[in-house]
Amino acid sequence: MNIYVYTDPEYRGSLWSVQTYRAICEEAAKKKYSVRLIECEDLDTFDFDTFFSAEKRKIVLCLTTSVGNTGKMIASFRRHGIHVLLVNHQSHRASVGCSNLIVDYEDGMRRIVSYLTSCGKTRPALYGINRNS
What is the DSSP letter of 60? Predict the structure, then answer.
């Protein structure tokens, strides 16, 4: 079985994308699945028919944190009959008709702060570009 993954080019080199992709590959290997990465800058020019030629059902895991590009990305996949599973997506309006796997940032930050406090760090500061950081 193949698992198809697309990473938003804007975030392809980010630590989150790299680690998430690595985790997907590790879990797939445990089940003897193959991970196929869709590597392209422009989905409108990608040859999906050839890429998915052996598949009856087309599903792509999309790793993205970009709210602005998501609607266009989903539309590109839909034009080719591909179902999208968005990973780490925040805007439900842009992803109507898609499945979502959402990371709970707030719980994650609570756990980090709790861990740091248990280590004796009483004034931790978390910095990041995410609005929940």
Answer: E
